[in-house]
């Protein structure tokens, strides 16, 4: 292996971590913020949930309106079942028209309206949960796509380096200075890289399809190109992030809204025990030679205590269940935030170890072994081993970088904070 080939292989491999592949550079990268805005505007699930929330808001005027009034028409016959029998010769036969209106006990409609209003608030809060979930999915797809595009570039550039190593190992073998085993082992490593590249293309295609679905894009539309995957330092403290959960977490807001709804439901159920009224008025017309009749009616409906007590008990039990659900979800969200914070902090330490220690040291070992092999002072297997180790370290670094950025993305969804 000559010195020029050695230098070429070293320089190409050293640039593998920091550069993007040619196919990635051919298209303009799309910022994550742009895709998040697109998903918010175009995702059909969000649109459906928004219309459901609007529909729920229309329940308020329905709940607070008086029951529909009734118009009554009567015809009273005397002496025969035939219509208008006795109308001209009896002062009991008449034709009547009247109206009546049911009047719920004061406060009932207002409390029913509050229940409907709180239910609409819950529906609105549920949009936040759905929106956060969709945004989280877009971020996860985007980061995974960025990872695959970045590691694909590393694999392709290392494939180029390995091609050079295979070429030189073959040349050594042909002149009797190397072993056929060296060539075969290098070719095996190249085949493994080709397999990884094929798997990367498959994964990228699957993620592209899922991401386009979230954005409501045509599946035949051009593939999405991401920006480079870079480390974002975690500046917020654990205590600050935990404090944001109860304030901004979408699921906690839904649970809090559900508690308010049940509070209104309890108050409404208690009010339902009060009596309702109905007022009616009727005008009865007889033949003109007789006097007309006028009738006023006033009805009172008394709710059965057993039914009302059961409704109150049901509402109170649901109120307790809503509170317990709130408490359970709050603890779950707090635990997730703490776990993600620990993971992100640990990932930052690992990234520093890769960046400042493992990768440079492995690169130096590879360069030294490659130089020694070029001078016939070391075996090809040693150079190939260091090459493989350096490649794996760079891939591990990128995987850790993905884990770190994904953890920050999840923390954003849980806390409502902007961390990236």
Automatic annotation (TrEMBL):
Top-level taxon in the UniProt lineage: Bacteria
Alphabetical UniProt keywords: Signal
InterPro entries given in the database record: MdtP/NodT-like, OMP_efflux
Keyword Signal: yes
Signal peptide: 1-25
One Pfam family it belongs to: OEP
PANTHER family listed in its UniProt record: BLR4935 PROTEIN, OUTER MEMBRANE CATION EFFLUX PROTEIN
Family: Belongs to the outer membrane factor (OMF) (TC 1.B.17) family.
Protein's UniProt name: TolC family protein
Organism in which the protein naturally occurs: Acidicapsa dinghuensis
